[in-house]
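so ive been stuck on this for like two days lol. basically i have the seq below and the ligand is zinc ion, smiles is in there too. i just want the complex predicted, nothing fancy, no docking runs or whatever. if the output looks off dont worry ill sanity check it later, just need somthing to start from for the group meeting slides
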Amino acid sequence: MPVGTLASVKGTANETLEQLNAQIILANTYHLYLRPGTEQISKLGGLHRFMSWDGALLTDSGGFQVFSLNDLRKVTEEGVSFRSHLDGSSLFLSPESATEAQIAFGADIIMAFDECTEYPADTDRARRSMEMTLRWAKRSRDYFEAHKQEVPWAQAVGGPQQVELRASRPQPRAGRPRSHDAEATQALFGIVQGGMHPELRKESAERTVEIGFDGYAIGGLSVGEEKRVMMEVIKEVAPQMPADKPRYLMGVGTPEDLIEAVARGVDMFDCVLPTRNGRNGQAFTSRGKLNIKNARYTTDQMPLDEACNCSVCRRHSRAYIRHLYQSGEMLASILLTHHNLAFFLDTMKRVRQAIRSDQFAQFRREYTEQLNSGLEA
Ligand SMILES: [Zn+2]
């Protein structure tokens, strides 16, 4: 999932996301809750209509942002009080209010409110945090069950604005998972925590599954631990999650991370790397990372990635994109972001094809070998 923090995948028009066949994108509840606010988005018919996105959407619960961005937070059993990073106003998020906001936004997949356990955390601390996340998971689900009919699609369908909107934009492409109607509801995912402690992770997974969700996520990873530790936790926890429901690894990762986590049983990912690193001048390629600031690309007429078939690689040279970047042209960020999204989405497409044709092991070996061949070595 490309990350669209503020209901926008930075530097990327919806047409580009459609061209790249991005099936689902992520938006952040914390940021949208602060601005433009829940009521505003709900009044405008929900996130899909607000941003004119016909593909699927996932919103996180806001928990991770509150924990990672906010120094002034106070966590109690009831929820988390914090100050807005925009204007300093006092705000409060709880399992109920985070779920309420996500119902108002109307994304296809929404997340239970959890506490992202800090790293490092000893067993006692990780257990207390995990127990609270489990209580919050139950409260999130109870609130969702009682209020899921309040999703804005119901009010939006058939209204005059809806008719106008439909007439003014292209129809969803065939095969798109879009058929919102009054009977449709959102999918609510639970989040497994437990720090880096395998026995807690196992227990968290079992008890989260007992509460019962439409899909399950692994939270609290990529928070400063070594990659080896992260992969160990994924290896332990993924098999504990139901095989017939989506398994989602939150906030991860590099192309290698995606392949390695898939090998351990993960289905879904979100990560800011393709967009954020693109804005910082870095391209992900089939032969590893490419830093466009590097002087060696000044007269390089090759595309960013020879093996990539995206419209940027078909059209533009490294030399041109480097020139744009050095000149501070916004197009540099746009082109690098476009290519990086194409590369990540293509990687996952190839993963799916390899799994379907029962050739994932071979794909994993070849992909990793090529990635490590070192374009800039
Ligand atoms: Zn490309």
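Confidence is low (pLDDT under 50) at residues 158-168, 170-178. The longest strand covers residues 187-192.
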